[in-house]
Specification:
The complex is a heterotrimer of chains A (about 120), B (about 525) and C (about 140). Chain A has about 120 residues and is mostly helical. Chain A contains three helices and no strands. With about 525 residues, chain B is mainly alpha-helical. Helices cover about 70% and strands about 0% of the residues of chain B. Chain B has a two-stranded antiparallel sheet with strand order 1-2. Chain B is globular and about 85 Å long. Chain C has one domain. Chain C has five helices and two strands, in the order ααααββα. The interface between A and B is large, with 45 and 53 residues. Chain B: This is Na(+)/H(+) antiporter subunit. Chain B: Belongs to the CPA3 antiporters (TC 2.A.63) subunit D family. Chain B: It is found in: Cell membrane; Membrane.
């Protein structure tokens, strides 16, 4: 199971890095989304994949009756999903605004902050 | 719900704190909780722009007082820790402060207090409405949280809080250059935190815990290449956050885009959290990784030290040039990390304090210069000295401080770093630190000569007076020049009387070296029986 | 998207979704659900209503600005953590208050619930402000 998951994570990362290396912002966004899922899967896998029952204590008991799965990786993944989702939403809006304002989806032509033809620094002093 | 009584035969390991927590321990919560609640209140009061500034100022004042109390407490009694939600460590999330984190958190609050005054000189009601003050407070929440947390995953969360607040601050106003800068800043920083998350995942798989003190106990026992790979991932993620060469490209692409006050806060605070995280991971959590990565650290430090001031010299935009000087300071701190001895950490902590104060002040001064000249293009500036000599004095003092010339503040940390390098016999690193000082002073004094010293603009007769310079409006003098002057005066006094800085840096280095104190503070409340059981 | 059917159904659908989101929020302590997922459902309701009735209408219906709602959420969550100051316990300790109702049943109020309500408000505020901003943009084009 771990080997299959590891291969899947590798696939996720491959796709994500390929997309992130693209010049187009919308592809980079997709890459961000996919790398986030890859990381979540990674945390899930390194938290040990077991066949135990969910970590829920039955009503009226104080401790689980049988061995349970480790709930911590799931909590970490949940947090990471929430944060990744909100940042993705923000980046999506930002990219959309940048596309409208700068009329550029291509990072090569986004040169407002760092002008391509920026003048040379003064040579005096 | 909980109606059935506890069964007699139930044997659970202790997980909850028994006994009361002293209210005095809450001093570690206030530096995070106060700005967070303040930001929340200001977000709700968005229809009352006139309340925003006074309320934010009061909150920041209270935060600074809380930080000072925390620092004094840590100085007097050693590291302080509180585990949230009544859980025992390592089950709960710990907040842990030692001299290093308390010092950084205190300086951050001080810087934000100055900047919140400076902000009054430049914002309009429109920006006020869009949440300038709440975002600044939220940024401080993230920064303080990052410094004071004792849990690695919690550190990730604070990084993201910081990131979201800084996104917001970057695009307030919505000018094209800001959107462009924000895209680059956003994507690259998000990638850095993703690397951090990957490293957290692997570390959890190796040691099975995320509490920093618990990791510091368990990670040194892990053998083999896996932990070294994890440490390298941490180094990659935090070096990207700290904008060390060659991962620095996001900083000069974005720091000159927002308003000067926002640039100043970014330059003062954001990269330092990355440096702090590097110190934590490589000297406290996974100490064996420092030896394995030392060569990489030295190369990164050396390259950053040299290339950053060279980059600063090649800029025509004053604020972009300052961005490269920020990176140069990161190089000096990386050198302290690469040396890694108590003396090296001493130099790192002292240099970080210096860099936080001085870079913030430099951006504020340049912000005022931009107000007078209407541009940040150094070819079109010139003649500010004639128009406002105070600004030019402040700028040259700050240039000396950032370059590390005596008797200004930057000299002392650089001296410590050089001593530490000599002690470690890494003479080429010492040489590069000194070369960085020379190059930085050349870059800085070139800026000073172009912006302040010469009379006219580029290309015209240098005797001709620059007519585009306007005097500062009254509002900018009161709210802009006075706080900046106060900060510069503080820097000068701290440079002439460096004993507090020495004491603070020495204590910080001591606390980083004594990992057992840090661990002890966290596990103080855990009953004795627990340790052997596991 | 702006068909008659959709415009007629959308208010009822949105109301139902908000109701369901509160249900999900309240059952979240011991069963699947909670503030985050409830907030997402409520934010989708607001987004749907925005598509159908227009963003101005939604803003009028919401009374408060979404960002102010998010601020309220952060405030509630912070207050939930600070409650434990008064019982000499560390930050964020869960505190419970059991109220006996007249019909013999029990109403459990707790700081985790308050925290969850805070999360709900944050998610509703943040997500709906993003959604409304995007929809507003779509309308003006």
């Amino acid at each position: 199971m771990e080997i299959a998951l590891a291969c899947l994570i590798g696939l996720f990362f491959t796709v994500a890095i390929y997309l992130l290396l693209s010049r187009s912002l919308i592809r980079m966004l997709l890459g961000i989304a996919i790398i986030g899922n890859g990381v979540n899967l990674l945390i899930f896998t390194v938290g040990r994949v077991t066949r135990e029952v969910p970590p829920i204590v039955p009503d009226g008991e104080y401790a689980p009756l049988e061995p349970i799965a480790n709930p911590l990786p799931q909590a970490l993944i949940l947090t990471a999903i929430v944060i990744g989702f909100s940042l993705f939403a923000f980046l999506l809006v930002l990219t959309y605004r940048a596309y409208q304002e700068l009329d550029a989806d291509n990072t090569d032509t986004m040169r407002v902050a760092e002008p391509e033809d920026s003048p040379r620094p003064p040579l005096s002093y | 719900m909980a109606k059935t009584p506890l069964p007699k035969n139930l044997e659970l390991p202790p997980a909850m704190i028994e006994g009361a927590t002293s209210v005095a321990d809450w001093v570690i919560v206030w530096p995070i909780a106060l700005p967070m609640l303040g930001a929340a209140v200001l977000l709700m009061a968005r229809k009352r722009p006139e309340w925003q500034a006074p309320f934010a100022f009061l909150i920041l004042l209270a935060t600074l007082v809380a930080n000072v109390m925390l620092y004094l407490r840590v100085q007097a009694e050693g590291p302080l820790s509180m585990t949230m939600g009544n859980w025992l460590p390592p089950y709960g999330i710990s907040l842990t402060a030692d001299s290093l984190s308390a010092l950084f958190s205190m300086v951050s609050a001080f810087i934000l207090l100055i900047v919140i005054l400076f902000v009054q000189s430049e914002i309009e009601t429109r920006e006020n409405k869009y949440g300038y003050h709440p975002l600044l407070l939220l940024l401080l929440t993230g920064v303080s949280g990052g410094f004071l947390t004792g849990d690695l995953f919690n550190l990730y969360v604070w990084f993201e809080v910081m990131l979201i607040a800084s996104f917001g601050l970057l695009i307030i106003g919505g000018r094209k250059i800001q959107l462009d800068g924000a895209v680059k800043y956003g994507f690259l920083n998000f990638l850095a935190t993703t690397f951090f998350l990957i490293a957290i995942g692997f570390l959890y798989g190796l040691v099975g815990t995320l509490n920093m003190a618990d990791i510091a106990l368990k990670a040194p026992q892990v053998e083999g290449g896996a932990i070294a790979a994890v440490a390298a991932l941490f180094f990659l993620a935090f070096a990207m956050k700290a904008a060390a060469f060659p991962l620095n490209s996001w900083l000069p692409a974005s720091y000159h885009a927002p308003d000067p006050a926002v640039s100043a806060v970014f330059a003062g605070l954001l990269t330092k959290v990355g440096v702090y995280a590097l110190v934590r991971t490589h000297l406290l959590l996974i100490p064996q990784s420092h030896g394995q990565l030392q060569v990489v650290m030295e190369v990164v430090a050396g390259a950053t030290l040299i290339l950053a001031p060279l980059g600063a010299m090649a800029q025509t935009n004053a604020r972009r040039a300052l961005g490269f000087l920020v990176i140069g300071g990161i190089g000096a701190m990386m050198a302290g990390l690469a040396i890694g001895t108590p003396l090296g950490v001493f130099g790192l902590a002292a240099y970080a304090v210096n860099s936080m104060l001085v870079m913030t002040a430099l951006y504020l001064v340049v912000g005022l210069v931009e107000r007078m000249g209407g541009t940040s293009d150094i070819r079109k500036l010139g003649g500010i000295y004639r128009a406002n000599s105070w600004l030019s004095i402040m700028f040259i003092v700050l240039v000396f401080a950032v370059a590390g010339l005596p008797p200004f503040l930057g000299f002392w940390p650089k001296m410590i770093l050089v001593l530490a390098g000599i002690e470690m016999q890494s003479f080429w690193l010492v040489g590069l630190i000194l070369l960085n000082s020379i190059l930085t002073s050349i870059a800085g004094s070139r800026l000073w000569a172009h912006i302040f010293w010469r009379d006219g603009r580029e290309g015209v007769n240098s005797e001709q007076i620059n007519t585009k310079i306007r005097p500062l409006p009254q509002r900018a003098v009161v709210w802009g020049l006075l706080p900046t002057g106060a900060l510069v005066a503080f820097i000068i006094v701290a440079g002439l009387w460096p004993e507090p800085l020495f004491r603070a840096g020495g204590d910080a280095a001591n606390d980083v070296r004594l990992a057992s104190d840090y661990v002890g503070a966290v596990f103080e409340r855990v009953p004795e029986t627990k340790g052997e059981g596991e | 998207m702006n068909t008659v059917i959709f415009r007629t159904v959308a208010p009822y659908l949105a109301a139902l979704m908000v109701l369901f989101s509160v249900f999900v929020l309240l059952r979240g302590h011991n069963e699947p659900g909670g503030g985050f997922i409830g907030g997402l459902i409520a934010a989708s309701a607001i987004a749907i209503y925005g598509i159908a009735a227009g963003v101005d209408e939604v803003r009028k219906a919401l009374v408060f600005h979404p960002i102010a709602v998010a601020g309220l959420g952060v405030f509630l969550a912070g207050i939930a953590g600070l409650m434990s100051l008064f019982v000499d316990a560390p930050f964020l300790k869960g505190l419970w208050l059991f109220l006996e109702l007249s019909d013999g049943s029990e109403l459990a109020l707790s700081t985790p619930l308050l925290f969850d309500i805070g999360v709900y408000c944050v998610v509703v505020g943040a997500i709906s402000s993003i959604a409304l901003a995007l929809e507003e943009d779509e309308e003006t084009r």
